[in-house]
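Lab meeting prep.
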Amino acid sequence: MASGDQSKKRKQHYRPQNQRPVKKKGSYPLKPGVQGFFISCDGGREYQASQEAINVIDSFFEELIQGTDSKVNPGLFDNPINKKVTFSYSEDEDDEEDESNYGEEEENKGDGDKAVVSEGGNDQVNEKEIASEGSCEVKKLAENETEKEEEDKGNQKNGGDEPPRKKTCTEEANPLAKVNENAEKSIDKLIEAELKELGDKSKRRFMKLDPGCNGLVFIQMKRRDGDPSPKDIAQHAMTSAAATKKHMSRFILRLLPIEVSCYPSEEEISRAIKPLVEQYFPIETENPRKFAVLYGARANTGLDRMKIINTIAKSIPAPHKVDLSNPEMSIVVEVVKTVCLIGVVEKYKELAKYNLRQLTSTN
């Protein structure tokens, strides 16, 4: 009995005093009520894919905000940095004429110099003319001599101290050093503020959430006023990738925008999809859209696929029609465990089903 009591005491000694469960480190789980990007990747590369996805999404987000996209806007290079890039034939002729005139002037100057010297004879040289020609050099020599004399006198009076000219140079350099120090301090403060903002998860615009399935990544977007929607960012990324064929990621396969998330039930889905229907499928419109519903499920086999598809199709008003062969817009429905993710995409088939790897492959 004594040994059993001692073991109990030891176990109690190592327990936490507040008796609260320890928080696990890692990303937050995926829950309903978020919007962002649903990404499929290579199995076992979820961490690398999430880091790449945040960088890719953030870069295209900045391009949409700043409007500086050289890939999509060809008119960006209409105003080059250098004002004069190419030279026409007429300008070349003007340049050649200027060079020829410049050569003639030099020849005339040379002839004049020879005439001045020849007037005085070979042995006799006019000192006034030499002084007038080299007046700048004579003045410089005189100034250098006076400066040396003043420096020697100063050294004799100060007893071998540094000359006053050097002191003034160091005094003039001190304010420049102070300005550089202030600039470095301001830059350090900006970097510290940026690091604090990145460390605060509440201020991050894009953050990784754990969907709980292998080969899947979800990037949450905390949208602010004036920010483009996940649909706009994904559409811009796919069109840019299709136009440039530039390799963007090693692990990302498919990148789909998610604008609504809810629990996977017919009532919740019909209620959550209303804002998307009002935005993309209005009742009063002159251009009715052809649409299709794309359904996918991961780690959830308890739902009826056709019931979910029919629920979404019935929520679209009458002017718009279903077209599975050539839809203009596609409603993406991805069920992951107990979360239903819904988004709207355009040109789904034309853009390789939003697969970055296929869009950027050269084969």
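Slide two material, second protein:
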Amino acid sequence: MAGKEQQFTEEKPLLPEQRGADSDMQELCEQLMPPGDWKEHDVETPYGMLHVVIRGAPKGNKPAILTFHDVGLNHKLCFNAFFNNEDMQEITKHFVVCHIDAPGQHVGASQFPQGYLYPTMDQLAGMLPTVVQHFGFKSIVGIGVGAGAYVLAKFALIFPDQVEGLVLLNIDPNGKGWIDWAASKLSGLTSSLPDTVLPHLFSQDELVSNTELVQSYRQQINNNINQFNLHLFWNMYNSRRDLEMNRGALNAKTLKCPVMLVVGDNAPAEEGVVECNSKLDPTNTTFLKMADSGGLPQITQPAKLTEAFKYFLQGMGYIAYVKDRRLSGGPVPSASMTRLARSRTASLTSAGSTEGARSRACTHSDSTEGVGAVTQTMEVSC
């Protein structure tokens, strides 16, 4: 049942132009969603209350776009820069969008009482069917980051009929060993909670250079998220079990839907994402490694990630035509894909069959204008 429904108001208007400097990015990340469009709900689930922010209504047979954020963030800090991107709004106007905040992580959340048992990662995944049913979604395309990617992957493993596709950023499918667990505990004793969480979110280069973006997130994690609640979520994430996926074994358990794995180069999650890729079906998995994007590609490279998401949806049979402002010809047909804009020299390898209705299209030419053959799996540095 929904506990409340109210308009989600803005502190600042959406900036129409894209701005690349760290100071501008900081301002962009602090913006709220467009006024009068988003509604807040509290949805009661078998494992507790979930805070949900939603825009639009189910549109025919189209899936809802459902997001789940990482530890140390909430839907605003994790996804605003991405969903405020002009091209992303061209996509989302065709879908209902649903942001999930993990229990107690949204702005203004009440502190949990002492002794509160935070939901396990499995239980967080078990909350999502209630949300899907509550809003009447036929299915979802999930976008998850870090802990949120783990939750959505778990959800798809348990309820495959409810998930049409997944975009998983910085996913680590492995539980922590006791040495890593002990190191995490020690770090928590010697550092503030924001400084403990930041190495999970940002690359070492970003932390060492202490960019304005890192400084901004340190402040926002400290000021906008209840620290007691965050500590519970952080501990539960670090207590997670391995995602039981293995594509090679007989009757292997793996993700059945199309998946796009995303990680920044030299990001703390790079090793986990690579291992996750090895556990998935290569015929419906895309691995996207983004150059110069740091630990949070959706924050530092929202335009590039938006472009990749367009083609991911096209490969699933949605959005037959999308606008590409770089080309004078207007819309780009779904049977072709221009190479993602690169910030440095890229490597591209592909494998897998060319059959199936959900095939991807990608470029095999060094030309930024070329169009190549269809493939199911690609690894891109962009």
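Talking points for slide two:
The longest helix spans residues 121-134.
The radius of gyration is 20 Å.
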